[in-house]
Amino acid sequence: MIPSSAPVAVPDSSAPFRDGRPHEECGVVGIWGADEAAALAALGLHALQHRGQEAAGIVSHSVEGFRQHKGLGLVGDVFNDPRVIASLPGRSAIGHNRYATTGATLLRNVQPLFAEFEFGGLAVAHNGNLTNAGTLRKVLVRRGCIFQSTTDSEVFVHLIAISLYETVLDRLIDAVKQVKGAYSLVALTSDMMIGLRDPLGVRPLILGRLPHSGAWVLASETCALDIMGAEFVRDVEPGEIVVIDDGGVRSIKPFSPVSPRFCVFEYIYFARPDSVLEGHPVYTARQKIGVELARESAVDADVIVPVPDSGVPAAMGFAMESGIPFEMGIIRNHYVGRTFIEPTDHIRHLGVRMKHSANRVVLEGKRVVLVDDSIVRGTTSRKIVDMVRAAGATEVHMRISSPPTRHPCFYGIDTPEESKLLAATHDLASMAEVIGVDSLAFISFDGLYRALGHEGRDAMAAGYCDACFTGDYPIELVDKEGRLVA
After folding, report:
1. Which residue of the set 26, 263, 465, 468 is catalytic?
2. How large is the C-alpha radius of gyration of the chain?
3. Residue-wise burial string across 84-114, b where 16 or more C-beta atoms lie within 10 A, e elsewhere
4. From first to last of its 486 residues, what are the pLDDT tens digits of the chain?
5. Is the pTM higher than 0.85?
6. 26 is a catalytic site residue
7. Phi, psi of 97 (to 5 degrees)
8. Which of 85, 86, 109, 351 has a 20 to 30 Å separation from 401 between CA atoms?
């Protein structure tokens, strides 16, 4: 049994989609061939904190075997004691940030998951969601598998365990050919590190290298490379397995090639703006989206104001194209963590002001265009609009740098059910009334695709996963459809 940390306090997660915004599911990182690999993995997790704030964990390997440390909370809380990193020796390590999309926020669900097999120990960290996890879980339980967690990621572990193939790689390939969904995965054994992406490449995974030591790095985004001084090598390709050991990197492609469908919301909201994904700098993509938005939905106004932080690059693009001044009319408090227990409806309503406050000198007497990345339930948008009007804005117009979110995501993004999505139950005019704006506009599908370098959205070959906008789900929803597997 490898050592593990004790649980720490965790905020209540009983209210799904707590702050009215979409949340990414997880971030993963892996290090092979570097001294103090666990410390580098912790740095990578710091850079990927935006992808998951509920839990973090690292598993390392040395001549002494595997060691792990996991905890509930932010990376800085879980790995704030130098003795923790010192307890994770070795030149290889993988790490994981968690935002729960399946499975409750419990220590037993915190990744990386670790198990001892016939071939030795294996640690697994998973980003994404399996659309047939529930179906597979029932089959595995009938076969005698005993699950230790409620996360869909454990399905990988049991599929590997029962595989009749001999090598860990063949067992992993056997496993991934049985799962359906959107995922990127890093795994660690005593003699190799493995990275893989789902056949459509919905979830990101990149390969990097530390220039001085020659150590290899796997991570969800390039910002994790930057913090540790590593150089970008390439994106792991959709459906590709990369195997890293002391002999270098080799590639295995067990799936038939298909047209990739990278998650378009990575560019709109999820990824950190200083990352580069699939060859596109995220910051530049968001600015271009703002430019297209301004071309499609111009409005007479005095000032362009972003809803910070994710709305900033798009608002800058909107301002550049429209010629209307850009101003920080809303200030975000970056030091707000989880809110305290809110005893009354009045105090709860004021909670948005803990995160955002109006900059009256910018807003008073002005016609304001608020630029945000999305509207999901509309509750947060309404509070921000009310706050801007209370600061003296004479008009408030809202422009959104994504199409309307009308469908839930089943590929690892925490979104409400369809009936709770404002755009699924209201037309544009009634949405504007609900959030209290003088006008409301979203970027079109074609405008979004033009901003990303395409002529428009080709319905026959979309190029991205945009199911939350279009309802075009590119991967079978096995559990939702209730189909059984053999």
Report:
1. 26
2. 23
3. bbeebbbbbbbbbbbbbbbbebebbbbbbbb
4. 344 433 333 333 333 334 455 545 699 999 999 999 999 999 999 999 999 999 999 999 999 999 999 999 999 999 999 999 999 999 999 999 987 554 455 788 899 999 999 889 999 999 999 999 999 999 999 999 999 888 888 999 999 999 999 999 999 999 999 999 999 999 999 999 999 999 999 999 999 999 999 999 999 999 999 999 999 999 999 999 999 999 999 999 999 999 999 999 999 999 999 999 999 999 999 999 999 999 999 999 999 999 998 899 999 999 999 999 999 999 988 765 544 444 455 555 555 566 789 999 999 999 999 999 999 999 999 999 999 999 999 999 999 999 999 999 999 887 888 999 999 999 999 999 999 999 999 999 999 999 999 999 998 889 999 999 999 999 999 988 765 443
5. yes
6. yes
7. -105, 135
8. 351
Provide the token pair at 444.
């079109």
Three-class secondary structure of residue 414 per DSSP: strand
Q: Using CA atoms, how far apart are residues 98 and 478, in angstroms rounded to an integer?
A: 24
Structure tokens, 135 = 């179906």
